[in-house]
Amino acid sequence: MILACGEALIDMLPRKSEAGEDAFAPYAGGAVFNTAIALGRLGAPVGFFSGIAGDFLGDILQNVLRDSGVDTALIHVSEKPSTVAFVKLVDGQATYAFYDENTAGRMLSEADLPTTIDAEALFFGGISLVVEPCGATYEALMAREAGSKVTMLDPNIRPGFIRDEAAYRARIERMIGMADIVKLSDEDLLWLEGEGDLADRARGLLAKGVKLVCITEGAEGATGYTASETVHVPANKVTVVDTVGAGDTFNAGVLAALHERGCLTKERVAALGAEDIRAALELGVKAAAVTVSRAGANPPRRDEL
Known about the structure:
Layout: E1 2-5, E2 9-16, E3 22-29, H1 31-41, E4 46-49, E5 51-53, H2 56-67, E6 70-71, E7 76-78, E8 84-90, E9 93-99, E10 121-125, H3 134-145, E11 150-154, H4 165-178, E12 181-185, H5 186-193, H6 198-206, E13 212-216, E14 222-225, E15 230-233, H7 246-260, H8 266-269, H9 274-292
Parallel strand pairs: 1-4, 1-10, 2-8, 4-6, 5-7, 10-11, 11-12, 12-13
Antiparallel strand pairs: 2-3, 8-9, 13-14, 14-15
Helix pairs in contact: 1-7, 3-4, 7-9
C-alpha cells in the first residue's frame, strides 16, 4: 500500500442558485488528498492519513476517498471542524478566504499518529507542511518511517500561505534529506534553490541523498534525474481547461508506475534504470494531461487513459 499523508479540505466554489442568487458549493480538495484519489483511480493500493472532522463536511471527504478506492482506516477523526476555503473567481483568477484555525487537519498531533503502518511507501507534501502542529506531525512521521519505507515529497509550495519562511525552508530541507523521491515544479525548484540551470539545481538535490528527482515544466513535460540517469518525457498535447490538481495527479502516476514495476523498496528505488524512470514519468504525464483537460481536480480512472 502507498499511504498519502497530508491535507484534506473543502473548497467552497462559487455557483448560482436556481433563483439566480450567489451561492457556494462544497467540493473535496487538498493537494495530498488529490494524490490519494488519483492513486486509487489508477488502480494502485492506497490509503490516506490526515485529521478529518467528524462533521458532514468530513463525511464528504471520506466518501470521495472511498469512492475512489482509497483505504480510510488510518484517518484520525476529530471533533474539531473541517478546513474550508471559499474561492472567488475574477477574470478566471482565483483568490481564497481560508479558514484553518483549530481545525481537525491543522491540529493533528504526534499523539494522533498510527502506531504501525503497513505500507511500502509514504507520500508527503502540500500546505499541511506549512502550519503547526500538523507540519511537525507529518515531519515526525516521515522521520519515523523513512529508514525502512520509500518516501516521496512534493512540497507544492504556496508562498501566500507561508508566515515563517525560515522555519518552513528548514523543514523542507530536513524532509528532502529524508526523501527517496522528490517532485518539484520548475517554479518550486527555483523558489527553493534559487535562480540557475534547472538541471544543475535538480542534481543538487541528489547530493542531499534523494534517489529520484522529478521536475515538471508544464507544457514542456517532465524530467527525472538520478545519479546515473536523466530521462525527459514530453507533455501530452491537450486543450487545457485548468491546471488544478495536475501536479497531484502526476505524483500519483509516478508512484503507481513504480509500484507496478516493483520499484517501491529502498533497494530498488536507489537503483532505478532509465526504463523505470521513463515508465513513471509517462504515466504521470499521461494522467495529468487528462486532469488539466477538465475542470477542477478530477483525476482519471485507469480506463480513461
